[in-house]
Specification:
heterodimer, A: Beta-Lactamase, Immunoglobulin-like, 3 domains, B: alpha+beta, six-stranded antiparallel beta sheet, five-stranded antiparallel beta sheet, 45 helices
Chain lengths: 418, 1077
């Protein structure tokens, strides 16, 4: 299974290494650097690189490459999934997963990695269990530890490890018992030149923040569960009940977790909440191009479209732009040719627009491709699929929790081809 | 700092050292100083020392030995975490000298109480194996032991160890196969991946190919094509054809029926498609792809498409696998076509893979949308991607004839693209396309000839030249001109172009020597002095061939044939074409090369190995599993049927078997034997089928006299019946009419009667039949029987908790009595055999009267229920007192309180009259005495029954020592303690009876202790012993502690400590009752 792990930063330095079996020389990473050089973009580095004696499986997160060294056959997804889990854990522990954070907490990182893998096989990856084994560093705890000499390593086997609900620790106590659920839907769409939708689908997740005392047993039901086409659950959800009654029944983990992610069946037509009018032209011969972009809301059920951000990769021939936004600010990076326009909120009365000219490289022929426009936006208090939570009930505990549900729609990979 | 007394200083020092290790700096000189601290009390220091030790022990073996004793001590620590971590570190130290110590430690830990420690032991196995492979045999023993472990925690790790140490020992899995399948869903996700992959391999060796019949169909017996019959599909079939040819004959006789264990695997893995872990989803997907029948593979598509939303690395791997799948099973992903559309923000490698998938999915119906998409892609800025798109268009064009022209035109337009790479790529693709039908496209060739002036990419130039040379007849005017131009620039060309120029010259010389003779000579001369020997050789070779000299051999005659032979069109195929021989989702598949340690996915066996090896050797299980076995066998010879002359509404098991050939059905219907006989004979091997039949025939003849009376009438009745039936149900008529032709008097009963309605029809008929001639006899019978039945009722022991079972009342009452009369009349022949387990109290589930002869009793076997440790095993005794065979006994419509679960007993296919059978089911009562209600179904009837557990059965015994007992008891005081005074019955004052009665009332084990002296400290009366019993509730595992303190004169005090107060109170009552009665 996983032999060793190397962390490599953006500038190509190995800043952490950990071996679970015998030591693998860090020179094995040279193969990785080779592949990295060959790839033009950082994300184009192949995830699996065979070398004469080892295989390197890497993931790129937060501009850090996590390179796992393996020696024999193992499902690649197994390793990839595990590496992502490692990153998630780091993020959970340190708030951010950056080189600096890892270097600052190198001992905790080492202890974590030691617990997560034994002989290359995952041992404890549930964040709740890990947190009982190794307490996350906080300023207060560091201070207390230095004074009292106590440790942040748990002495007892976490109870969750042995129980049937490994994701929840026992003896949880809160004074305010609360359970919040965020229904977040993302629209992935490709809109073609003429404004018609080529593909659009809705992917949603329900993220939960549950702070409840004891061992609560929750059930969550939907008004329209039939909308959900394909779902994947947190291990805590009882699959049988979902199959039979379309009810989510679960003993929640403590804290933040992703309860469910779903896909809304593609039969339902997806309402596209914004439209884009665009006119981007390059004229043959002249070194000028016209750029004209207008955004407008569409099918938003009266909710405001917020945090709109437009970005577009302009052709290589564009030297600079001279644009005039009706609202918000825009930037153009002449090196990467990336145009971003931070629009903010769309006001239906006064549609935001970005107009102006682009200067092209003199003498070069007109670029034959038109840029695609990526749009990000948020709509609060609305789930675009129409999914609605019916009710949330709690069994097994006596107190009355405070419950809250929030809906939000976001743009996922929303692209407009021009 | 390490020598300091203060823990905080030590900790600081260790932290620095670990930071050094992390950065890859050498810290090995500090080894002696560090190793001293291995016994440090501070747990964090200890952990960091462990980290250090594991890292450097290999380099400093001698010094590392100093630490061993600390670990050995740690292995005996009461804290399971410390035990586990000691074992972990001990096994991680790669020092050969300590191998025996490790071996010992692993063996010990493998039987540790704590599953966590056992899990660690499983992890340690591969470590030791890699250190010293000679320990393999011993390790396998440990693996075998751990495989039998029932906790989910251990399962994943031990299968992992199995895969690393002895993947070839598939025989170890047999016994644990069903358990693994059942536990699978509760195993942690990483373990799931490993187990699923292992089970895939296992299933490939143990079960038959579920698609065997389909491939037969496709083969042309019926001339039917698969739904998505396409080129690839057919190719694949071709391959299969050879393989299946031998098995074909065999398979035709035996229609494929899936092994129930195979089905179990598929059913239990399916929910895991919903896992959040991509690796698990992929593992299930590959399992379905490799093992499931074609019709069922589709379910994985949705889940795989979902993974495409994940991180790009996950997408990369998933798309690779999807690409392979789409070649074999295109239909599966067709509905998700749009999910593979490419976004400009995707990384290039993802784009290329998506393109691959799109190309594989293209067919006549969706090609237009796909091509439209491709058109947008061509404009992309990512040139590698554009090149890939052009190739994809080429492949679409070759695969789908209708769009070939459109594609070609599109590609020709691309020739005017400004980007040279695009042009070059399209030239190469066009070349391949033109080869298929050059006649029509001479204008394209002309167009391309013109391009030679502009295109600089050597590959493209070479392609154009080859094209012109190959089809020079179509462009007779241009070709010499091109050669002229090329000759001019010959010296400046790349090698690959030069070779093609020579080729072109040769071809032109052969077809049009008048115009090109000089040019060819010139080119060949140039080539003769080229720097590249390949070109020189080629020139020499060609000159000899084509230029007729006096020396020229026989070959020159054939020059034209050599050069201008018709070349077959190239096949543009996917690079994923032949990847499917690797197990999907594996590293080897991804790399398309065998990775170290890759286990080949075996081919399906031609005949299924004996399925009985998977039967678990728990006494109650043997019976039902032999039943399963029988079921399989029976289906293999489908037309085995039993025909008890007057068996009433017989639920013949043949309902599943398809009613194909009449001849067989005839022979089958001859086989009439009572269940007991068939059971015996079926113990024999399958191959003896024929002999068996003969045997049965004879047996049947022997039996005939017994059935005389009925069979006499039956021949007449049968015909009448048939006449009616064929009117009523046409669906049946096909198979029946065949049988009727054979006019086998008894065959009629053997036809399929699945639905109740049919059964009812029969019953009605029966009622009608019973009227005519034999009416008086029957009535007498009935009377008699009623009397008997009444007597029987009186005979019955008053059961402790009689279960009320409502009579199923969907038949009219008269009918019921009629039928009852019938069935009871026969019960004389088959006297009831009651076989309740001796020691266990058995309860009645279904009375023989209400059950129409079927009597069911159940008892709590107190054995651990192997598929699920949280369930109480309930052993059911079925007794068939009726004359008719009861068939397909199973459970339905389970109604439970929330939280409760039931694992149904395996369906009992056939319970012959007068026989008994045993089955075990598991019920998770959730530590409550709520009843589990369900329907017990035979093929014809349903009986509502319920099982209510006495509280004493909701626990399983645990072994505690006296001290542990007291310690636990101390923690369960107050509310959790219930005490009751009682006077012991005179008969039960000795130790033996008390223990017996308590253990009979509740499933507890006795805590070994002598007479307890601490109980009454001052003057310990030796004759007042204390009895302690301990157990845990089955579901929640909370402790149940029972203490009986005896005093003078039979006075005693009963104390129950239990976290669950309800259980405690109820238990007190039950034990009280048991002790005082």
């Amino acid at each position: 299974m996983i032999h060793s792990l190397f962390l490599i930063n953006a500038s190509g330095d190995i800043f952490l290494e950990k071996h679970w079996k015998s030591v693998v020389s860090r020179s094995v990473c040279d193969y990785f650097f080779e592949a990295q050089e060959r790839a033009t973009e950082p994300e184009n580095v192949p995830p699996v690189i065979p070398t004469p004696h080892h295989y390197l499986i890497s993931v790129l997160r937060h501009r850090i490459y996590f390179v796992a060294v393996i020696q024999s056959e193992v499902p690649p997804l197994f390793v990839i999934e595990f590496l992502h889990r490692v990153v998630d854990t780091f993020q959970d522990y340190f708030g951010v997963c950056t080189e600096a954070a890892i270097k600052d907490n190198v001992v905790v990182v080492y202890e974590l990695l030691e617990e997560m893998l034994d002989n290359g096989f995952p041992l404890a990856t549930e964040s709740n269990i890990l947190k009982e084994l190794i307490k996350p560093p906080t300023i207060l705890r560091t201070m207390v530890n230095t004074i009292t000499g106590s440790t942040n390593v748990g002495e007892q086997l976490p109870t969750g490890q042995l129980s049937v609900v490994p994701w929840r620790r026992t003896g949880v106590k809160y004074t305010n018992n609360e359970a919040y659920f965020d229904v977040v839907e993302e629209i992935d769409a490709i809109i073609d030149k003429s404004g018609s939708t080529i593909t659009a689908e809705i992917q949603g997740v329900i993220d939960a923040c549950v702070k409840l005392t004891g061992m609560p047993d929750l059930t969550l039901s939907f008004m329209n569960p039939r909308l959900l086409d394909d779902v994947s659950f947190h291990p805590c959800v009882r699959f049988k009940r979902w199959e039979a009654e379309r009810i989510l029944s679960f003993i929640p983990p403590d804290g933040n977790f992703r309860l469910l992610s779903y896909h809304v069946s593609s039969q339902n037509l997806v309402a596209i909440p914004v439209y884009v009018k665009h006119n981007i032209t390059f004229r043959e011969g002249s070194s000028q191009g016209r750029f004209d972009l207008t955004l407008g809301p569409k099918q938003t059920m009266g909710k405001a479209v917020e945090s709109v951000l437009v970005s577009s990769q302009l052709p290589r021939g564009v030297l600079n732009t001279n644009l005039n936004p009706s609202q918000g600010t825009y930037t153009f990076d002449p090196v990467t040719k990336l145009l971003t326009w931070d629009v903010g909120k769309i006001n239906p009365q006064k549609l935001p627009s970005l107009k102006g000219t682009m200067s092209l490289q003199a003498g070069a022929s007109k670029p034959d491709e038109n840029p695609t426009i990526n749009i990000q936006f948020k709509i609060q208090q609305m789930a675009i699929s129409g999914l609605k939570v019916n009710r949330l009930d709690m069994y097994g505990e006596k107190y009355k929790p405070f419950k809250g549900i929030k809906y939000m729609t976001k743009a996922g990979k929303f692209q407009v081809r021009t | 700092m390490l020598d300091s007394n203060k823990d905080s200083l030590k900790l600081e020092a260790m932290k620095r050292i670990v930071a050094m290790i992390a950065r890859g700096k050498n810290a090995s000189d500090l080894f002696p100083a560090v190793v001293k601290n291995v016994a440090c009390k501070n747990i964090e220091v200890k952990k960091l020392v462990y980290v250090y030790l594991v890292r450097y022990a290999e380099e400093q073996q001698d010094l590392a030995l100093l630490s061993i004793s600390t670990f050995q001590r740690g292995l005996k620590d009461p804290n399971q975490l410390i035990r586990a971590s000691a074992l972990r570190v001990l096994s991680s130290i790669r020092v050969t000298i300590i191998v025996p110590i490790m071996m010992l430690a692993i063996k010990e830990a493998a039987s540790d109480m704590s599953p966590y420690v056992r899990k660690t032991a499983a992890h340690a196995i591969p470590k030791l194996y890699s250190l010293d492979p000679e320990q393999k045999d011993q390790l396998i023993e440990v693996i075998e032991k751990l495989l039998a472990d029932k906790t989910t925690l251990v399962a994943g790790s031990v299968v992992m160890a199995f895969e690393e140490v002895c993947p070839e020992r598939i025989d170890l899995i047999h016994k644990n196969y069903r358990k693994l399948c059942n536990l699978l869903i509760d195993v942690e996700e990483w373990g799931q991946v490993v187990i699923i992959n292992m089970l895939t391999r296992y299933a490939r060796t143990q079960f038959l190919n579920p698609n065997i019949n389909e491939s037969l169909l496709e083969e042309g017996g019926s001339g039917e094509k698969t739904f998505y019959g396409s080129d690839d599909e057919e190719d694949e079939d071709e391959e299969e054809k050879e393989k299946k040819a031998e098995t074909a004959a065999m398979a035709k006789r035996k229609p494929y029926v899936m092994d129930p264990d195979h089905r179990l695997l598929l059913r239990n893995t399916k929910p895991l498609l919903q896992s959040r872990n991509a690796a698990v989803v992929m593992a299930v997907a590959q399992l379905y792809f490799h093992l499931a029948p074609k019709a069922e593979v589709g379910v994985i598509a949705k889940a795989l498409v979902r993974l495409l939303r994940s991180h790009s690395e996950v997408q990369y791997v998933v798309l690779q696998n999807v690409a392979t799948m789409t070649i074999k099973r295109r239909g599966m992903f067709e509905p998700y076509l749009k999910s593979f559309y490419i976004r400009s923000t995707d990384p290039t490698q993802i784009k290329v893979l998506k393109l691959e998938v799109l190309t594989n999915l293209a067919n006549e119906t969706n090609i237009s949308t796909i091509l439209r998409e491709f058109q947008t892609y061509i404009k992309s800025m990512d040139k590698d991607f554009v090149a890939a798109t052009i190739q994809a268009i080429g492949r679409c064009a070759t695969n789908i004839g209708e769009v070939r022209d459109t594609c070609l035109n599109g590609l020709v337009q691309l020739l005017s693209n400004r980007d040279e790479l695009v042009v070059a790529e399209s030239v190469v693709v066009i070349k391949k396309l033109l080869q298929m039908q050059p006649e029509k496209h001479s204008d394209i060739i002309k167009h391309m000839a013109k391009l030679t002036d502009n295109i600089q990419v050597p590959m493209a130039r070479a392609s154009i030249l080859w094209l012109i040379g190959e089809y020079c007849e179509h462009v007779p005017k241009i070709a010499p001109d091109v050669l002229r131009k090329m000759a001019k620039s010959f010296t400046n060309e790349e090698d690959i172009v030069k070779l093609q120029i020579i080729n072109l010259a040769a071809k032109l010389y052969l077809t049009n020597s008048k115009q090109t003779k000089l040019l060819t000579q010139y080119v060949l001369n140039l080539a003769k002095y080229d720097q590249n020997y390949d070109i020189r050789d080629r020139a020499r070779f060609i000159r000899q061939l084509i230029v007729p000299t006096e020396k020229s051999g026989a070959l020159s005659k054939y020059a034209k044939k050599l050069f201008l032979a018709l070349k077959p069109a190239p096949v543009l195929e996917s690079p994923f074409k032949d990847r499917d021989h690797f197990q999907l989702g594996s590293l080897s598949h991804l790399l398309n090369a065998k990775a170290g340690g890759y286990q080949e996915l075996p081919d399906w066996p031609e005949a299924a190995p004996d399925p009985s090896v998977r039967n678990v050797e728990v006494p109650e299980w043997t019976k039902c599993s032999s039943r399963e076995k029988r079921k399989e066998k029976k289906v293999e010879k489908p037309f085995y049927s039993d025909s008890e002359g007057e068996s009433g509404p017989t639920e013949s098991a043949d309902s599943e078997s398809d009613s194909g050939s009449g001849s067989e059905s005839a022979s089958g219907s001859e086989v009439s034997a009572s269940g007991s006989e068939s059971e015996e004979s079926e113990e024999g091997s399958e191959s003896e089928e024929e002999e068996q039949k003969d045997k049965k025939k004879t047996k049947k003849e022997l039996k005939k006299p017994v059935q005389e009376s009925e069979s006499e009438q039956s021949s007449e009745e049968e015909e009448r019946k048939h006449a009616r039936k064929s009117k009523i149900s046409k669906s049946e008529s096909e198979s029946e009419s065949d049988e009727e032709d054979e006019s086998e008097s008894e065959s009629s009963e053997s036809e399929s009667e699945d639905s109740e309605s049919e059964a009812e029809v029969k019953k009605k008929k029966k009622a009608a039949e019973s009227k005519p001639p034999c009416k008086p006899v029957k009535k007498e019978n009935k009377k008699e029987k009623k009397e008997i039945s009444l007597l029987d009722l009186d005979d019955f022991d008053p059961t402790p908790s009689p279960q009320v079972t409502p009579v199923n009342s969907f038949l009219s009452s008269s009918l019921v009595t009629d039928l009852e009369g019938l069935s009871l009349s026969d019960s004389v022949l088959a006297p009831a055999t009651m076989a309740p387990s001796s020691a266990l109290k058995s309860y009645e589930l279904l009375h023989r009267i209400t059950g129409e002869g079927l009597q069911v009793e159940f008892c709590f076997s107190r054995q651990p229920f192997s598929p699920d440790a949280n369930m109480v095993a309930v052993q059911m005794h079925f007794t068939n007192n009726a004359s008719a065979d009861a068939k397909s006994l199973h459970m339905e419509d389970v109604k439970l309180q929330s939280g409760m679960r039931v694992r149904e007993f395996p369906e009992i296919e056939l319970l012959p009259a007068g026989e008994t059978a045993t089955a075990v089911m598991g019920i998770d009562f959730c530590d409550s005495t709520q009843a589990a209600n369900f329907q017990l179904c035979t093929q014809t009837r349903k009986f509502f029954v319920s099982i209510q557990p006495p509280v004493g059965e909701l626990m399983r015994p645990v072994f505690l020592t006296e001290n542990e007992f007291k310690k636990e008891q101390g923690q369960l005081m107050g509310m959790n303690e219930i005490t009751e005074k009682l006077t012991l019955d005179a008969t039960c004052r000795n130790e033996h009876t008390i223990v017996q009665r308590v253990t009979a009332a509740a499933n507890l084990s006795r805590v070994p202790c002598g007479s307890d002296k601490e109980c009454s400290p001052p003057v310990p009366p030796p004759d007042h012993p204390v009895y302690r019993f301990a157990g845990r509730t089955v579901t929640s595992g909370s402790l149940v502690l029972v203490t009986v303190v005896t005093r003078e004169e039979g006075a005693a005090q009963l104390t129950v400590n239990c976290e669950k107060m309800v259980i405690g109170t109820m238990l007190v009552k039950d034990i009280l009752l048991a002790l005082t009665q």
